[in-house]
Amino acid sequence: MTAIVDYGVGNLFSLISSLRYLKQDAVLTSEEEVINAADRVILPGVGAFGDAAEKLRESGLDAVIRKQAFAGKPLLGICLGMQLLFEKSCEFGEHQGLGLLKGSIIPMQGTIPKGLKIPQMGWNALQIRRPHPLLQHIREGDCVYFVHSFYASDCEESILAVCEYGTAVPAAVAGENVMGCQFHPEKSGKVGLSILKAFCEVTI
Amino acid sequence: MLTKRIIPCLDVRNGRVVKGTNFEGLQDVSDPVALASCYSEEGADELVFYDITASAEGRRLFTDCLRAVAEQIFIPLTVGGGINSLEDFDRVLKCGADKVSVNSGAIRTPALIEEAAKKYGSQCVVLSVDVKRVDGEFRVFSHGGRINTGMDAVRWIQEGVERGAGEIVLNSIDTDGVKQGFDLEMLRAFDLNVPIVASGGAGCMEDFLTLFREVPGADAGLAASIFHFGEVKIRDLKEMLAENGIPVRRV
Questions:
Q1: Is B90 a catalytic residue?
Q2: CATH number of the domain that B115 lies in?
Q3: Active site residue A143
Q4: Where would you tag: which of A153, B5, B23, B190 has the fewest CB atoms within 10 A of its CB?
Q5: Which residues of chain A neighbour B3 with C-beta distances below 8 Å?
Q6: pLDDT at residue B19, rounded to an integer
Q7: Nearest CB to B96: which of A14, A189, A190?
């Protein structure tokens, strides 16, 4: 069973629907016991890093997620959920993340060439940097759907794939059992579904 | 590199797609799920559902159809038509919409843009603008392009972006339905830091190539009838664009 962490951030209709479409048993939850009992955990998220990090802290879910991650349970962060896996973000002041992956979140504003629109919104091609079970069903150059204005940096060791948007933007990242997608697999057609499927098949 | 998006737009009345369609092997051409699935298979990068229903019952049928599509089609879905309040945003977002497009509702109540952007994020708020030349000036029209608001289009769109719109759909009334190509001159008049979706005038595949070559600021091309009537297949269109060096997503 997959636990989707519900902490009041973002629209989860598509994520739940896509897992159901894949015939995966998934539950939206904010309860510690359910997350602890799950085989794997998805941390979704849309919006501002500071607000989301605060919500995780207030609810105590940050500790729950960290504990499960340290215990080796597969964890997938999506979009802002991926950004939260890192140590910190400088989105509207400095905020602490979950610190499960080494690196920090920086704005596109001022770090990518002028003339490129912010946010990056649309389909971009994945350039695979190293093989990983999460990407086992996809091919170099497959396109996925991005919507974001901030991105991960100083995270070289965890990068699985990047996309080109004025710079090499980390698109998929992973530590041992902790994985993340900057893009929205639940909005990325068949390619996205195959990434979610791969996550559900991961055994660590 | 970010690819250029191809977006079919479907008009929905009482939960059924209106306008004739010509899809091989498709039994029910007004079934939104079947049509959306066809478009998605062909490589549509996003779908726009435009609710042209006026009644409350029709609205319910629309959200039922939206939910059915969103449960099966996993590409971005934009909803427009009859969006006048935050409750309207909420109603369609709960049923699987990713973006919500406002037009007359935002002209009436410009603050709706920032309220929605604050609550759901700018990425969720699309400002759709119907523009027509009046005495050589670009003017904003409301109510499906029937009423001249007298507003300057360049200024209105700038205001919309400042208020938090994350994407602009620019529909040229002058070229809409004429099928002689997108309104390149009008599109060039807008230099924005948010994505621009060009709408109105697509008549053949070459019109999209001309759009992306001539207007680098255009991120997407939207069309309805040429896709519905099967005049242009999205798969063929993307193949042609790719052969001509335009970055597109292939499926």
A1: no
A2: 3.20.20.70
A3: no
A4: A153
A5: 122-125, 143
A6: 66
A7: A14
- Is residue B150 in some structural domain? yes
pLDDT tens string A63-93:
999 999 999 999 999 999 999 999 999 887 8
Assigned domain for B248 exists: no
Q: Determine which one of A95, A163, A186, A200 is catalytic.
A: A186
The 10 Å Cβ neighbour count of residue B148 is 12
Closest in B93, B121, B251 to A189, CB measured:
B251
pTM of the entire structure? 0.95
DSSP H stretches of helix in chain B:
32-42, 56-70, 86-93, 104-108, 111-120, 153-163, 184-188, 205-214, 225-228, 234-243
Radius of gyration of chain A (CA): 15
Q: How far apart are the first and last CA of chain B?
A: 17
Look up the ipTM and state it.
Answer: 0.94
Chain B residues within an 8 Å CB radius of A147? 123
pLDDT in tens, B147-156: 999 999 999 9
Active site residue A184: yes
CATH of the domain at A87: 3.40.50.880
Mean pLDDT in consecutive groups of 10 residues from the start of chain B, 251 residues: 96 82 63 92 96 86 95 96 94 94 97 93 94 97 93 98 96 93 97 95 97 97 90 96 98 88
